[in-house]
Amino acid sequence: MKGAADSRVRGHFRGTLGALGLDFAIDAPARGITAIFGPSGCGKTTVLRCVAGLRRMAGALSVKGEVWQDDASGIFRQPHDRSVGYVFQEPSLFSHLSVRDNLRYGWERSVRTGRDRTLEFDEVVDLMGLDGLLGRGPAHLSGGERQRVAVARALLAQPRLLLMDEPLAGLDRAAREEILPYVESLHRTLSVPVLYVSHDLREVARLADSMVVMDAGRSVSSGPVGEVLERLGLDRSDDDSEAGVVLDVSVTGHDDRLHLTRLEHAGQQIVLPRAPFRVGESVRLRVRARDVALATARPAALSFRNVLPGTVVETVEHSRTAFADVLVDVGGARLRARITRDALRELNLANGRRVYALVKSISLDRPAAGGPVAGTGAGP
Amino acid sequence: MSPAAETGTLWSAIWLTLELAVCSTAILLVLGTPLAWWLSRTRARWKEAVAAIVALPLVMPPTVLGFYLLLALGPGGPGGWLAGLAGARTLAFSFEGIVLGSVVYSLPFVVQPIRNAFEAFGDRPLEVAATLGATPWDSFWTVAIPLARPGFVTAAILGFAHTIGEFGVVLMIGGNIPGETKVLSIAVYELVETLQWHQAHLLSGGMVVFSFLVILSMLHLQRHSKGKQ
Q1: Distance from C-alpha of B74 to C-alpha of B93, rounded to nearest angstrom
Q2: Closest residue of A to B137, CA-based?
Q3: Interface check B132 vs A, CB under 8 A
Q4: Residue B131: which of A85, A94, A96 has the nearest Cβ?
Q5: Does the structure show a pLDDT above 70 at A234?
Q6: Centroid of chain to Cα A277
Q7: What are residue A240's phi and psi, to 5 degrees?
Q8: Chain A closest CA to B23's CA: distance in Å?
Q9: Cβ–Cβ below 8 Å for A96 and B146
Q10: Mutation choice for B interface testing from A78, A84, A87, A96 by most B CBs within 10 A
Q11: In which band, very low, low, confident or very high, does the pLDDT at B37 lie, cut at 50, 70 and 90?
């Protein structure tokens, strides 16, 4: 139980949630961002509240080896005795305090709780871009600014674990785009592990390293983002159109004449319209299943630029619909294609069949985190 | 009575009234705050029963309240026992007695605005404080009290003004002892009874102006604090 066990967030909670039974288990690395993903009302927020100790359900929880709850031995730490930071969906700043005093609130109390001050006040203010806002009152901030203050305030409490409950859900599109880079930079520069609740697959694909999928109060699957996404909703036909995979690829060069950027993943070449990345940089791409078509022979005279040869590894037909999902191994990476069941039969697609994956469009997500990236779509 | 002595009686009544109001308001805030906090946070089933008891003085005739207070403060009641500790026979017909009566009488005017203010900001600010490492005691002082400030201002003004305006309860339990229990409202009553209308005008007119100013300043404060939130 020592060693590897100490660098993880482990826990399980069981209870009732209105008409819903909650049965949640987590065993995630205590580094990077772990997303808790699921539809609205599936119990994600309740889980986060249990982790913070704001709500009590039967179960157990340990964070980096520190036990926060263990019903078997009667341990339940109160929220103020847990080294946790919590960013609520609404920014929830103290309206009677200035931005500076909001930030100082947790910062000053981190001494009492004996938390190590690994994050400096000025460093966090800088990181979240709050320099010009310190003297203002919360009423005089925009929605995005308030949420940035809330994130900084939670960080300055020096948490062992940062909890974020859909921090972008209450913001309009512009404010969301404004704050995302800050969350990403938090991920790149700080070592604080994050549990990030979201119902937005794009957000999860962009930010998270690993994820736990929840449905109707239960945790149904978990693991590195790449692995989970590639199988997500494979067993369901009602899955939304965002289903797909993520690939962490490296930038190999640019073509200034044709405005293209070349990328490579496990020996496969991918081209994109020119993107502002440095050569050698690692970038996360997201490929939606509905943007991938399949062919059994290399198509000639085609406008699609990204045609990747591969092998079918799994096919799933969604009964009572026209569609099927096909998982294709392209040189170690996995792509998912949403095609019709009709096409599946006519092309005789079965495991082991050689195919060409035609990728219509790719969305660029973010520079992947430095260091070894957990949760790429690549198999071993 | 000489004019100087008359003015002296008037001032003594005004001074005594202010003393009574200040003492009562201070006690009311100290007692009312924990009570309002409990009412705003507890899930006890009998909480509304407690709230109803606190609100009783709003609807009861002051004479009814005064009658029971008289029994409670008298030699046979707990007030008499309390007075016995200090070597007196009864708490009725004393300054301490009318302070006690005022506290009971004005309690709803202090508890209700504070309770409303505590309920208005919900649980979220306290949850935030807890996750930032604040103990419940700490967050009560640094978050709950400052956020409820407008409620406290309203409560203090209402409690103060209501105590000044009280008549029936004081008449029942305090009588009419100059310098001890003869407050403004009692003095006006007596002046009218004895046909000293000139002095009655002075006191009554003063009360009208005072009451107007109190309500006006309260409305201003409320607008101001709303603007700040």
Answers
A1: 9
A2: A80
A3: yes
A4: A85
A5: no
A6: 21
A7: -75, 170
A8: 29
A9: yes
A10: A96
A11: very high
Give the pLDDT confidence of B134-168 residue by residue, as tens digits: 999 999 999 999 999 989 999 999 999 899 888 88
Which whole-number Å values give the CA distances from B125 to A149, B142, B144, in the listed order? 15, 11, 8
> Per residue in A312-321, pLDDT tens?
998 888 877 8
DSSP-derived 3-state class of residue B157: helix
Angle separating helix axes B95-120 and B149-164, nearest 10 degrees: 150
pTM, full prediction:
0.81
Query: In chain A, which residues have their Cβ closer than 8 Å to the Cβ of B136?
Result: 80
- Calculate mean pLDDT across residues A89-115: 88
Cα–Cα distance between A29 and A374 in angstroms, integer?
A: 10
Residue-level pLDDT at A113: 65
Closest of A236, A171, A162 to residue A197, by C-alpha: A162
- Model pLDDT for residues A116-170, shown as the tens digit of each residue: 777 889 988 988 889 999 999 999 998 889 999 999 999 999 998 999 999 988 8
B48 touching A (Cβ < 8 Å): no
Closest CA to A323 of A206, A237, A213, A202: A237
How far off is chain B from A79, nearest CA to CA, in Å? Answer: 6
Residue A362 near residue A285 (C-beta atoms within 8 A): yes
- Residues of A with a Cβ under 8 Å from any B Cβ are 52-54, 78-80, 82, 84-86, 88, 90, 92, 94-96, 105-106, 109-110, 112-113, 115, 139, 153-154, 157
Q: Residue A54 half-sphere exposure, CB side, CA atoms within 13 Å? A: 22
In chain B, residues with a C-beta closer than 8 Å to the C-beta of A87 are none
With beta carbons under 8 A apart, name residues in chain A contacting B141: none
Tell me whether B71 touches chain A (CB under 8 Å): no
Total length of chain A: 380
Average pLDDT, chain B: 88
What six digits make up the tokens of B130?
């807890």
CA distance A199 to chain B (A): 22
- The residue in chain B having the minimum alpha-carbon distance to the alpha carbon of residue A87 is B128
> CB within 8 A of B106, min separation 6: which ones?
B24, B28, B57, B158, B159, B162, B163, B166
CB-CB under 8 Å, B132 with A105: yes
Cβ–Cβ below 8 Å for B142 and A115: no
- At B176-191, the pLDDT tens digits run 788 888 888 888 888 8
C-alpha torsion angle, residues A186, A188, A194, A200 (rounded to 10): 90
Higher pLDDT, B228 or A280: A280
Nearest CB neighbour to A80, from listed B124, B133, B143: B133
Q: At A68, is the pLDDT very low, low, confident or very high (cuts 50, 70, 90)?
A: very high
Judged by phi (left if over 0) then psi (alpha if -120 to 50, else beta), residue A301 lies in left
Which residue stretches of chain A are H helix? 44-52, 99-112, 121-127, 143-156, 173-189, 201-207, 225-231, 341-346
Q: Is B146 on the interface with A (CB under 8 A)?
A: yes
**DSSP strand pairing (A194-198 vs A161-165):** parallel
